[in-house]
Amino acid sequence: MNERKLKTATKAKPTLATKVGIKATRKLKARSHSQQRVWFGLGMMGLIGWSVAIPTLVGASIGVYVDGHYPSERSWTLALLVAGLALGCFNAWHWIEKEDLAIDEEHKVTAEKEHNDE
């Protein structure tokens, strides 16, 4: 028998009361944080929207200025609009990745705590 199977076999199975207690704790925690999660989600959508919109508008504004003062064959407005959009998308991706890592870390801590309580 390998070591993992041995550890699993020798562990005492949690009782029904322990399982119910863990589930009740999770449910109470979810209920107490539900309002906070809604506002957090809306705030994150706003943050991501603005993190894309602002660089796009700044790029377009600079492009309009450059096209107005330094006319050329190419449209700086379009080029800088696309550059601003790309920068904004990268910025939004950064924020989402950061929040995803924080959520994963929170789940790991919660799972370890529940595992240690058993």
TrEMBL record:
Keywords: Membrane, Transmembrane, Transmembrane helix
Coiled coil segments of this chain: none
InterPro entries assigned to the protein according to its UniProt record, in alphabetical order: ATPase_gene1, ATPase_put
Transmembrane helix keyword on record: yes
Pfam families given in the database record: ATPase_gene1 (PF09527)
TM helices/strands, residue ranges: 38-64, 76-96
The protein's name: F0F1 ATP synthase subunit
